[in-house]
Every structure is written in structure tokens, then in C-alpha cells.
Amino acid sequence: MNKNMKATILIMSLIISTLLFSTTSSAAKYKVTETDSLYKISTLFKISVSKLKAMNHLTSDEVYPGQTLTVSAKTYTVKAGDTLYKIAKRYGISVNTLRKANNIWNDNLVAGKKLILPGVKPQNTTQTTTKSKTTSTNTSIAKETSLSSNAVISYSKEELDLLARLITAEASGQPYQAMVGVGGVVVNRVQSKEWPSTIKGVINHVSGGYYQFSPVKNGYINHPATDIAIKAAKEALNGSDPSKGATFYFDDSSKNTWLWSKPIFARIGAMVFAK
Hints:
Blueprint (H helix, E strand, L loop, with lengths): L2 H22 L2 E5 L6 H8 L3 H7 L12 E5 L1 E4 L6 H8 L3 H8 L11 E4 L8 H17 L14 H15 L4 H16 L7 H5 L2 E2 L2 E2 L2 H5 L8 H11 L10 E4 L5 H4 L3 E5 L2 E4 L1
Antiparallel strand pairs: 1-2, 3-4, 5-6, 7-9, 8-9
Protein name: Peptidoglycan-binding protein
InterPro entries: Cell_wall_hydrolase_SleB, LysM, LysM_dom_sf, SleB_dom1
Pfam family, one: Hydrolase_2
């Protein structure tokens, strides 16, 4: 083999190695928030707790706010005209998980900003891509009760109607974002281990003899949902959360000192959102 041939092979090897490395590299930096735990972070990025600990050389399950962790996820550089919804839709993830991964709770994006795409990993080969598409299809079939591919939780037609009726009863006359926020609180409870795991279970939940939502007790939940409430319910189910992760809401005229003592995450119209 002549010298020119050897040099060519060496150069090609280096190029291939570089391409492989850039394709399979999926590390991103995530900053821990006050409500985080290793389990929540691993769930958000769809990796195991053990892998997350190994990636960051952690010897315990303890994390602290402000701590920077390496996570397995692709990053995306924001371009002019981008929105969280467009980016989330492009990569097949929910707006809510995109918000959580980047701690963004408004809709202001600056071109050039890098976003972490939770659960999105680079595709190495055609086979991997095909497998990913097959898995996605199987997941959609398994969640046949879900009415939207962008939904952050599975739900049925009856549960969509139930959520819209709750929003109608609780937030009619309030700003649209407050209505979405009410839906967001229900979604946040479904996603939390502290509450039932379905929309129906959360809305009809009775704890210690107390109804969690007064319209269930007084019967207002049985009134038909308005069109705008149905729209708000769908937006919340697709990941929009003006409540900023709240699990409680109440009217600002409430005299309940227990509710007022909770950390307030957002105030929209007369609605107060807390956790």
C-alpha cells in the first residue's frame, strides 16, 4: 500500500470518527430546580436514575437547586420565528416538558438560545430511526384513548368533556389563560404521585370527606361545557400551563388562610394558582 493510499485511509478514518462522535453525543446541561428530584429528572429525560447518577458521578440520590447535571438529550438552537409550540411539535414532545426542561414559563424566545429537548436523542442509523418510528406508533396504539398526539397525559372523550365542564364551572368570565390554568392544575395533579392518575380520578377525588373541587359537590360540574372551555381544556392537555406547575387554584376573594399560605405561582384575573 503506497503512502498516498495510507494517508487517504487515515484521513477518512478521522472524518468518520468525528461524524460518529457528533451524531451519538447527546449530552446536555440541566439546572436543578427547587421541586426536582433525581426521579423527576430521570422521568423528564426518559433515562433511568442509575444512568443519571452514573453520568454525573453521584453517590447518593440527593440533588440541590442550582446544581448542574449532565443529561442525555439533544439540544436545539432557537431561530427567528420559532415558538415553543412549533419546536415541541417538530420533535414530537409536549410543550410542558419543553418548558420544564428549560425552566421557561413564558412564551418569549430569543434567537440563538439553546434549548434542551427532553427525551430526544440523535438517530445513528436508518435502523434506529425505523425502530423509533415503530415504537412511537406502538405507543400511540397503546394509548388509543388519547385524542391528541401532543397530549401530555392520556384521556378519553368523556374526560375531555369532564375537564371542560370543570373549567366552565370554575373560571367562566375569567381571562382565557386562567381557564387554561385551571386545566393545567388538573393535568399537574394527574402527573403527580400525590393525586389519582386520571382526569376523572383527580376531579372526583374526595379526601378526608372533602371534595377537591366544589363544582363536583354543588353539581355545577354537570352544566354543559362552553366552546371556549373545551378549547382551554385541549390546550392544557397539550402541555400549556399558565399556572406554572400549580396544583391548587382559588378565587382571590377566598378567606381560606391555608390556601393563602401556600407558595403562589401565578395570578391571572381573579384566579390564584399555588402549590
